[in-house]
Specification:
The complex is a heterodimer of chains A (about 220) and B (about 675). By secondary structure, chain A is mainly α. Chain A contains 7 helices and no strands. Chain A is globular and about 60 Å long. The N and C termini of chain A lie far apart (about 65 Å). In chain B, the strands form 3 sheets. Chain B has a 3-stranded antiparallel beta sheet. In chain B, strand 6 and strand 7 form a beta hairpin. Chain B is globular, with a radius of gyration of 27 Å. The N and C termini of chain B lie far apart (about 60 Å). Classes of the chains: A mainly alpha (about 220), B mainly alpha (about 675). The interface between A and B is medium-sized, with 16 and 16 residues.
Chain lengths: ~220, ~675
């Protein structure tokens, strides 16, 4: 295959997948059902794994395959399964109650997306792959944090944290041709894995102690 | 280059490390831990002391280079030591005191057998001495700060050693907080020096001040003054000192008061004379003024104490003041360009440094033996100990005479030198500022007199008359090793007092490094038998001669007895008791009563309060019970630190509103800051 054409195809594929990640993120913002949110996260992670696979395939970087594989196994299969089981086992209500209502959240996230694109503009020359992937990555981080404080239930905050992490991974894959050194990627990956497992246990404990997953109840801990 | 001193020094440092390890290894076996830790410390102190004396006397110190102790991995941080004259002098002080203390501790630590872990005490003691040695010897700012912090932390652990008591814990925390305020200032000061020199080596800092702009130079001076002033116990930064020294085990109190606070003096001498170049006049005036203030206030508050160790702690503030008077005067002389007088004042200050280290350590050891025997630090419950602990009483008396600056002991010699430099300072300048010199001289005279009054009280109430409690009545003499430790220091007091001209040779390389000329030949007349004031206008004095004269005068009453009274009859009878049924301890003069005249004279300062409660049946003249309480206000505590503490507390309470305990709020903080940063980046 002609190298110029293949790079072009890679760039377009990555841009497509990145935009799909952003769309899923916005869907998460307005999603009312908890289990659907978890599935949406799995879908978003799948797109991330896809980007990693594209990078690996078109640039012949074998170790990025490992990243893609780990992302798939960890974030598409294992973590969603873990959270899913947690939700079912604790019989939490499915309804998500946001602090800010959905239209306002949507508008805010639109603003954050705009901000992400403006902030990323000076750095577009650094992007080796795809267009605007950095902008999407920043937007994912910002909306992820917004999601975190816009939710009451501890488990939805874990989910939001995971989308922030997806944004960081996207930036890492997009900005460096062959991804970060494998050791760093593995480090981040296991970091997140362990963090989520710990959080899952903590959420369970919070539920046990307060009979609720509303983090607002944590103010009772303050002396 | 001569390798004798560095090798001995390394041996000594190794000895402290071994001592600390021995303390930890024999954690559960008191006797072995005691022998291992304090034995190693004594040997190590002897080694480092020899190394310092050798370097000073052979002149090896003058051109000493750096020696690397441990290889380093980080740029700028060099673990190097340098045996230059100033370091050696302070190393000598430390080693001398540590040697006596370690021997004393062999006996003193027995009091903790079965009660507390002697191993922990020994380990921290070794770490403290090791860190203090490294503070004196390091020639890299990073290494200095690391050693400084280890010193502060191990000192904190030792102060809190008897942590079961509330008072001890509070004192430990106060020490910790004050110490860290000081360290913060030091770090900022060293950063200013780093900015000017581009390195952290002390060699690069030499005379750096002349190349610095005025404002960073003055800022550095103030930062170092506060930073080292906290450690030295300079008024008004002294409040930790009378809290922390009494509650520590007595061997540690002696180390704190004798040596640890001298690290502040060392730092000031190093920074002011070595690093910051020719001083502006106000530096000297500030140091001299603060020194005078510390001296007078220290002794005044000391007079009001009836806790023996607290009294000694306040005297440390007084003596630090006297040392700083010497250093301040030296700075002023350097400013006006009188190097000989500057040398004289510096010699006076440094001589008083070693003297104070020796006699204060001696007094704390004596107090330790007394407290150990009488089971209390309150002087009002002691008394009559001279009969029960004759050797301790003798050594304490030697220390008391020395600290009261009475001839012929060492305190007199160094205070005389301070007077000499102050009195000769009047002619060095024509500006009005010269009035500082006679005024501080007068304040020094007042200090000396009050100190003498204070030690009449301390010795009299503690050792003389009848015991006021059963513990005091059953007191027993201290163990031989405890007496040996005190004896060493008492001998040092006598030596430094009688043969000052011999010792002044040791100070020659130090003055040559810091101020200018060496003075030992100018200061000694008549083959070193007489100490002179260095300049034609100065006085001269001979402690040896005074002693000889006193001994000669002692013959006079003996001769009179021989001539007139040999055949008269000797009659023994009880002391006149005003016709009562014998004398009881309740009739004795109390410590509070003794200091009452002075409390009344300085009423404006002390603001004394007293409460008297009487219970009587039919007439107020026949009271059944009487309760008397008297308080003296500590001005700095009530007027400066309490309001400051209150303000900080209030501000913290308001800040707590930020910490709402709500997860969402915290996330919003992060989010907002992230947004603000991003918008700034645009």
């Amino acid at each position: 295959m002609n190298p110029a054409i293949s790079t072009d195809i890679a760039a377009q594929l990555i841009a497509l997948l990145a935009v799909l990640m952003l769309v899923v993120q916005l869907l998460l913002v307005v999603q009312r059902m908890l289990l659907t949110s978890i599935r949406l996260f799995a879908v978003q992670s799948m797109f991330l794994a896809g980007i990693a696979a594209v990078v690996a395939f078109f640039h012949g970087a074998m170790h990025v395959y490992i990243v893609a594989g780990l992302t798939f196994i960890g974030k598409v299969m294992f973590l969603p399964w873990l959270l899913d089981r947690q939700v079912r086992r604790m019989r939490i209500g499915q309804e998500i109650e946001p602090l800010v209502n959905f239209p306002t959240s949507m508008l805010t996230c639109g603003g954050l997306t705009l901000l992400g694109y403006i902030v990323a503009r000076p750095f577009t020359s650094l992007e080796r792959l795809g267009n605007n992937t950095l902008a999407v990555a920043i937007t994912l981080v910002l909306t992820g944090i917004f999601l975190m404080f816009n939710r009451r239930k501890a488990i939805t905050q874990v989910l939001a944290l995971l989308t922030v992490e997806n944004g960081v991974m996207l930036a890492a894959v997009a900005l460096t041709t062959y991804g970060m050194p494998l050791v760093v990627e593995l480090g981040i990956f296991f970091d997140v894995l362990v963090a989520v497992m710990v959080l899952a246990i903590l959420v369970y404990r919070i539920r046990e102690s307060f009979d609720s997953m509303d983090v607002g109840k944590l103010t009772q801990l303050k002396g | 280059m001569d390798q004798f001193s560095p090798i001995l020094l390394n041996l000594g440092l190794l000895g402290y490390v071994l001592g600390a390890l021995a303390g930890l290894v024999f954690f559960r076996r008191s006797r072995a831990a005691n022998l291992g830790a304090f034995g190693c410390a004594a040997a190590a102190a002897a080694c480092t002391g020899l190394a310092c004396v050798h370097a000073l006397l052979t002149g090896a110190a003058t051109d000493a280079g750096s020696t690397r102790l441990v290889p380093t991995l980080v740029p700028y941080v060099q673990f190097t030591v340098c045996l230059d004259p100033l370091s050696c002098f302070f190393g000598l002080i430390l080693s001398l005191v540590a040697l006596a203390l370690s021997i004393y501790s062999l006996g003193y630590a027995r009091g903790y057998y079965g009660r507390k872990s002697v191993g922990v005490l020994g380990a921290f003691y070794n770490v403290l001495v090791l860190a203090t040695t490294l503070v004196f010897l390091s020639d890299n700012a990073f290494f200095f700060l690391i050693a400084w912090e280890i010193m502060a932390l191990s000192a904190y652990c030792l102060v809190s050693f008897e942590h079961e008591q509330n008072e001890t814990r509070n004192a430990g925390v106060l020490f910790f907080v004050m110490s860290h305020i000081g360290t913060g200032c030091l770090i900022l000061g060293f950063l200013l020096l780093f900015q000017a020199s581009g390195g952290y080596g002390f060699a690069g800092f030499h005379a750096l001040g002349d190349k610095m702009a005025a404002s960073p130079r003055n800022a550095a001076f103030l930062l170092f003054l506060v930073g080292f002033g906290v450690k030295a116990g300079l008024v008004p930064l002294h409040i930790w000192l009378p809290a922390a020294h009494p509650v520590a085990p007595s061997n540690v109190s002696a180390l704190l008061s004798g040596v640890l606070i001298k690290t502040g003096i060392y730092g000031l001498a190093r920074v002011l004379f070595d690093f910051l170049g020719t001083p502006p006049n106000w530096w000297g005036v500030t140091v001299l003024g603060l020194g005078t203030l510390s001296a007078v206030l220290g002794v005044l508050y000391a007079l009001m104490q009836h806790d023996l160790k607290r009294l000694l702690a306040y005297h440390s503030i007084e003596n630090i003041g006297i040392i700083l008077m010497g250093l301040g005067a030296a700075l002023m002389f350097l400013h006006t360009g009188h190097p000989v007088l500057a040398s004289l004042a510096l010699v006076a200050g440094l001589y008083h440094t070693i003297n104070h280290a020796v006699f204060k350590a001696l007094l704390f050891l004596g107090a330790g033996a007394v407290v150990h025997a009488a089971h209390t630090r309150d002087m009002e419950e002691m008394g009559g100990l001279a009969k029960r602990m004759p050797h301790t009483a003798l050594f304490f008396l030697i220390g008391a005479v020395a600290i009261s600056a009475l001839p012929p002991l060492n305190g007199f010699v160094s205070e005389w030198l301070v007077y000499q430099s102050l009195l000769q300072g009047f002619g060095t300048t024509s500006s009005l500022i010269r009035l500082m010199f006679p005024l501080s001289g007068a304040m020094l005279a007042l200090t000396g007199a009050l100190a003498a009054a204070c030690f009449v009280k301390a010795f009299g109430i503690t050792f003389l008359a009848q015991p006021r409690s059963t513990h005091a009545a059953q007191a027993r003499e201290a163990t031989p090793t405890m007496l040996l430790g005190q004896g060493l220091l008492a001998a040092a007091c006598v030596f430094l007092g009688l043969f000052p001209t011999l010792f002044l040779k040791v100070l020659d390389p130090v003055t040559r490094q810091l101020a200018g000329p060496a003075l030992s030949t100018q200061l000694s007349l008549a083959n070193g038998l007489v100490l002179s004031g260095a300049t034609p206008g100065g006085g001269s004095v001979s402690t040896l001669g005074l002693t000889a004269a006193a001994a000669g005068l002692l013959l006079v009453p003996f001769a009179l007895w021989l001539v007139y009274a040999r055949r008269t009859r000797v009659r023994l009878g009880p002391t006149w008791d005003c016709g009562l049924q014998g004398l009881t301890p309740r009739m004795e003069y109390t410590a509070t009563g003794f200091s009452k005249p002075i409390r009344m004279i300085f009423k404006a300062l002390f603001r004394p309060r007293r409460e008297v409660q009487r219970e009587y049946d039919f007439s107020p003249y026949f009271a059944k019970t009487l309760r008397f309480e008297s308080h003296v206000e500590e001005l700095f505590l009530t007027r400066l630190y309490r309001p400051l503490y209150g303000a900080v507390w209030q501000a913290s309470r308001r800040m707590r509103a930020l910490q709402a305990g709500s997860l969402q709020a915290y996330l919003i903080y992060i989010f907002v800051i992230l947004l603000v940063l991003l918008l700034f980046a645009l």
